Amino acid sequence: MDKERYQYEVSASGRVNLIGEHVDYCGGKVFPAALSLKNYVFVRANGGDRIRLRWTDIPLEVDLEIDKLESYREVKYANYIAGSLYVWREAGHPLVGADMLFDCKVPFGSGLSSSAAIEVSTIAAMCAITNLPLDKPAIALAAQKAEREYAGVNCGIMDQYASACGVAGHAMLLDCATLACEQVPIDLGEYLLVIANCNKPHNLVESKYNERRAETEEALRAFQRVLPVESLAEVTAADFARYGTLLTGKVYDRARHVIEECARVEAAAQAMKEGDLPALGALLNASHASLRDLYEVTGRELDALQEAALSSPDCIGSRMTGAGFGGCTISLVKAAAKEDFIRTLTERYKAKIGYPPSIYEAEISDGITIKKL
Ligand code: GLA
Predict the structure, then answer these.
(1) Displacement of CA 95 from its chain's centroid (Å)
(2) 54-76 confidence digits (pLDDT tens)
(3) Which long-range CB contacts under 8 A does 186-192 form with residues at least 24 apart?
(4) Is residue 313 in some structural domain?
(5) Could you report the per-residue pLDDT of 161-179, keeping only the tens digit for each?
(6) Which amino acids are annotated catalytic?
């Protein structure tokens, strides 16, 4: 890879969410952090009217015509990039011909938001070569729009926001209704976070995700008949106790998860600020149980991984992170026992599921970075 040929190295992050799962699209608060697992874009303006895409580890060459960006929906790997640039342009921003080399260190399909990292870094790269000031929240919103309209996942704002606006050493307490964002220092004392991928093959995230989202919208419509609320996150525990009977079956369970998870996010941020790690661990466990029993997005593999983590005396909390249906767990583990923990986790998970998990080493890092080359 000949870096000198490019003007900038631009990066955006994958993310973990500490807690606040499946609440971003309900106007709730989430608590994600940006990872040092990133997508890198090496970029330079080329003076033409095409955006030439290349990858460090995928033998593929795609040239995008700036005036036809809407027509690459079916082109694997290039679709997220074309979609992001398309949305950015539709929002009134300039695009210029460019050479872009992609180097993605966020494992694909891991649930750590490789797609958000690609979308966000693509737009940031275009900002760099068009000399636009870096408006990270605006980039996150455009990237989310690309994911929804171009990739067809009706997602919330959490992933793209964390990918763009993350701050090293901090988790962001992000209010998804207002986008008010408080950066909370991550101080885990004698503990650390272990990220493990359950490696479940072929998960159907998109369709199931959109289905859950529709169920929460149905719940909201029912509450709106009796309460002046604009989002499900505004429904309080007391409201739910009173009006929950308006909902039936699965829709009741989904709404209960959202309302209780929103309360857990506040409690978790407080526990983090007070350095109360056992309280944080208990909240992670409660979140997983709710995602398993009420929201039904865990599945056999993620449950086995969480149980294997909790079977270690050195783990004080574990949960799935991200959309679910596969992907990763995070576990709060005594730092001194990390290697033992990983060994036990791997053995017990493999004994139950038949193949091992993957463990990722990552720091909590800055979101978008731009380096002049
Ligand atoms: C995916 C979506 C996010 C969020 C999570 C679940 O990662 O992209 O917007 O909804 O699932 O919390």
Answers:
(1) 27
(2) 999 999 999 999 999 999 999 99
(3) 186/33, 186/272, 186/364, 187/272, 187/275, 188/277, 188/332, 188/335, 189/275, 189/277, 190/277, 190/334, 190/335, 190/336, 191/277, 191/316, 191/332, 191/333, 191/334, 191/335, 192/332, 192/333, 192/335, 192/338
(4) no
(5) 999 999 999 999 999 999 9
(6) 159
pLDDT at position 256 over 80: yes
290 found inside a domain: no
Number of helices and strands in the chain (H, E): 10, 13
Q: Which domain holds residue 71?
A: 3-185+365-372
Q: Which atom of ligand 1 is nearest to the CA of 153?
A: 8
How far, in Å, CA of 28 to CA of 236, rounded? Answer: 12
CA of 17 to the centre of ligand 1 (A): 9
Of 121, 102, 114, 106, give the one whose Cα is nearest residue 153. 114
Q: How far is the CA of 324 from the centre of ligand 1 (A)?
A: 9
Q: Tally the domains of the chain.
A: 1
Q: Which pLDDT score, from 0 to 100, does residue 202 have?
A: 67
User: Is 352 part of a structural domain of the chain?
Assistant: no
For residue range 261-296, what is the model confidence (pLDDT) as tens digits? 999 999 999 999 999 999 999 999 999 999 999 999
Ligand 1, residue 157: give the atom nearest the CA. Answer: 9
CATH number (domain holding residue 125) = 3.30.230.10
pLDDT exceeds cutoff 70 at 1 = no
Q: What's the pLDDT at 171?
A: 98
Average pLDDT over residues 154-164: 97
Residue 29 CA to residue 21 CA, distance in Å, equals 9
Q: Do the Cβ atoms of 307 and 285 come closer than 8 Å?
A: no
Whether 15 is covered by a domain: the verdict is yes
**Closest Cα to atom 2, ligand 1: which residue?**
155
Residues 260, 290: contact at Cβ < 8 Å?
Answer: yes
Distance 263 CA to ligand 1 centre (A): 18
Residue range 212-242, pLDDT digits in tens: 999 999 999 999 999 999 999 999 999 999 9
